[in-house]
Amino acid sequence: MSNYDVIVLGGGLAGYCAALSAAEEGATVLLAEKCDEGGGSTVLSGGFMAFADTALQRELGVSDSPELLLEDLRSVGGPHAQEDLLRTYAAEQTTLFGWLTAKRLRFEGVELAAGQSAPRSHSIDPGQLILTLHELAQANGNVTIRTGTTGVYLLREGENGRIRGVTVEESGRLEDVEARCGVVIATGGFSRSERLLQTFAPQQARALRVGGVGNVGDGLRMAWRHGADLHDMGEVKGTYGVHATECNNGQEILLIFYRGAIIVNREGRRFTDESVSYKLIGDAAMRQDSPVTWQIFDKKIFDGSIGAARLFDAAAALNRGLLIKADSLQSLAEQCGIDPQGLLATVASYNEDARSGRDEAFGRDGLCHHVGALVPLDQPPFFAYPSAVAVLATYCGLRIDAKARVIDVYEEPIEGLYAAGEVTGGFHGKAYMTGTSLGKSAVFGRLAGREAARTGRA
């Protein structure tokens, strides 16, 4: 039986952060990734990480703080979000930013997005993020990386003892691997498992299925088998803004509604406050008669988005052939298959409200999370982005504590078992702040690796 101090299951952002932090503590680490290459859902993401009070924000004149971040996390997540996890994120994220930038990772800008009272979505190329961490892990003499290696079972001392290792499968062969200090589960969610989605998220039956191809819930099941508690399983939500016909595995997303666009159904009617989390907008979109709805905006909003991060750059979307463009709202509606009279009436009413500063229909009081003045849609040409809802990530799963230890159904830590990233629940609650999916993966991945190494070697 081969043995290591720490075994990390999963080669996404959480897994690499766990492996590197454990190695920095002097632990020997096995990083086992089931696919032929790592990345998981991370490389399919928009590449935002939520940080507060960073040098980049200050350089750009953005005033933010860990305290305001924590306040926003509480507001977005509601009563179901675990306070200890939110506090840990707010306390650890600034140090994490420094840890990542010290590893030659470069954040390119900061955007205001869902759930944020100040621009704190730090933009980074997600592919480059994983590549850099992979290269650092490869160069670290304490880390062994095995791809095409799937975790199958957790090994335990007796019925209720310490988790002592993992049974892995590689090329059809099973192998037991010992973990002297602990096992970190970072296997992602279950957006690719129809069975688990039907069990926990039947309301997402019409949503597109995207996300990491290996995200079938195997890590979740492994811990569940040993009595691990689950959290937020009723909060699986789809992401709104994925292109309805050119999804590209969830990578074609536009969130131009946070720059002032409105969202309408095929009757041409708005059905939501466009400034709230795109998870909540996704819920509202799933209740419409058609699975396709449209983001509608004008030249002002289009011009203002030029050069923005990919998720907000309408000009880039137009260049990729993803927008519908017309000189009038009537023509735009006809091209989209939207009821023209409905759209004309909706835009007229919204423009009147925008000029008065008060949205009478849905209470929209800002472009995004109470920030920014409403923008009338009155300058042709006009644009439409056909949008769908996609389950990109599941944002629920294993219950963990502030040390990333997996908690069982009796509210006790399972000794030797840690988890981080999308496989965990409890952090997001009812909705989602942009940048906290990657953010929590890195925060709790780093924490899990460190805790496993320190606790097991104490």
UniProtKB/TrEMBL annotation:
<keyword id="KW-0560">Oxidoreductase</keyword>
<feature type="domain" description="FAD-dependent oxidoreductase 2 FAD-binding">
    <location>
        <begin position="5"/>
        <end position="438"/>
    </location>
</feature>
<dbReference type="Pfam" id="PF00890">
    <property type="entry name" value="FAD_binding_2"/>
</dbReference>
<dbReference type="InterPro" id="IPR027477">
    <property type="entry name" value="Succ_DH/fumarate_Rdtase_cat_sf"/>
</dbReference>
<protein>
    <submittedName>
        <fullName>FAD-dependent oxidoreductase</fullName>
    </submittedName>
</protein>
<dbReference type="InterPro" id="IPR050315">
    <property type="entry name" value="FAD-oxidoreductase_2"/>
</dbReference>
<dbReference type="InterPro" id="IPR003953">
    <property type="entry name" value="FAD-dep_OxRdtase_2_FAD-bd"/>
</dbReference>
<dbReference type="InterPro" id="IPR036188">
    <property type="entry name" value="FAD/NAD-bd_sf"/>
</dbReference>
<dbReference type="GO" id="GO:0008202">
    <property type="term" value="P:steroid metabolic process"/>
</dbReference>
<keyword id="KW-0274">FAD</keyword>
<dbReference type="GO" id="GO:0016491">
    <property type="term" value="F:oxidoreductase activity"/>
</dbReference>
<keyword id="KW-0285">Flavoprotein</keyword>
